[in-house]
Amino acid sequence: MGFSTSGAAAIIFVGLFVAAGLVFPALEGAHERRADALEERTDRALEVTNTDVELLEASHDDGELTVELENTGSTALSAPATDLLADGELVDAETAVREDDGTEPDADRERWLPGETLVLTADTDDFEDDPERVKVVVENGVAVTGDLTEGEDGG
Fold first, then answer.
1. Which of 55, 56, 60, 104 could link 146 by a cystine bridge, Cβ 3.0 to 4.6 Å?
2. CATH for 53-150, among 2.40.128, 3.10.450, 2.60.40, 2.60.120?
3. pLDDT tens-digit profile of 121-152?
4. How far apart are CA 7 and CA 17, in angstroms?
């Protein structure tokens, strides 16, 4: 009987050792994924905190909507990832970045750096009525809203 008890204990010990060898990598991987997710969440929160956008001008003239925004935060933003809404409706807008020295906007630039101005232009001929409000949402969810001013022709 002594041998069977020792043999059973050895089998149980080997079984526990194998089970621990299978469980440990899974737990370690889950812990690493959780730590990475927490770090990404912290980085996103910091990016949102450092993002600030100011609406300089929003106007509607001859069926064209023009919105100018300044990146007043410390985060570089993506111009193509910036969304424009007019009266709550998503508008397909062309983007151009103007540097802080006041030069002509460059449509080929994709990064919108702090201190620079983003100019969004969109065709609004498909709207039944002239839009009255605009909302611009940048890539990380920070948004700015404003009223439209009438263009030179009254609207």
1. 55
2. 2.60.40
3. 998 877 778 888 999 999 999 999 998 875 54
4. 15
**Alpha carbon distance 76, 137 (integer Å):** 14
Cα of 119 vs its chain's centroid, Å: 18
Enter the pTM of the model. Answer: 0.73
d(CA 97, CA 80): 10
Question: How far, in Å, CA of 32 to CA of 73, rounded?
Answer: 32
Q: Kindly list the strands in the beta sheet with 83-86, ordered across the sheet, starting from the edge strand earlier in the chain.
A: 89-91, 83-86, 133-137, 143-147
The domain locations on the chain are 1-49, 53-150
